Amino acid sequence: MKNQKPTTAVALHYDGKEAPRITAQGTGELAEQIIALAKEHGIPLQEDAALVSLLSKLDLGDEIPQALYMAIAEIIAFTYILNGKIPEGFEPSPEQTEL
């Protein structure tokens, strides 16, 4: 039997005014519940073990650190596009226009 690490999940909230905040986090069964709720509510999921590892070190309610702004901004922009919204000032790169 393969020894698997438990699933870890981190949820963020972004209001457009302040840095995104940690709104839920957990491992194992709690992580599975967070993921199930996100799917149930149509919230896009991003799988990135390194990013989750960094975010899971924060406490509930914490703003994400400035060092992660760019990584999180790219995810937020992508979710806007998935929902048919274009972020203000967004200019797609040539690679993105081929999608």
Give an overview of the whole structure.
- With 99 residues, this protein is α+β, with helices and mostly antiparallel strands.
- It has a single domain, classed as secretion proteins EscU (name from scop), CATH 3.40.1690.10.
- Helices cover 37% and strands 13% of the residues.
- The protein contains four helices and two strands, in the order E-E-H-H-H-H.
- The mean pLDDT is 88.
Looking at this protein, list some descriptive labels.
99 residues; two-stranded antiparallel sheet; 37% helix; name from scop
Please summarize the sheet with the most strands: 2 strands, antiparallel
Shape type: globular
Number of helices: 4
**Which assembly state applies to the chains in this document?**
single chain
Strand content: 5-15%
- CATH secondary-structure class: Alpha Beta
End-to-end span in angstroms? 40 Å
Question: Helix proportion of residues, in percent?
Answer: 25-40%
Instruction: List the strand order in the largest sheet.
Output: 1-2
CATH fold assignment? name from scop
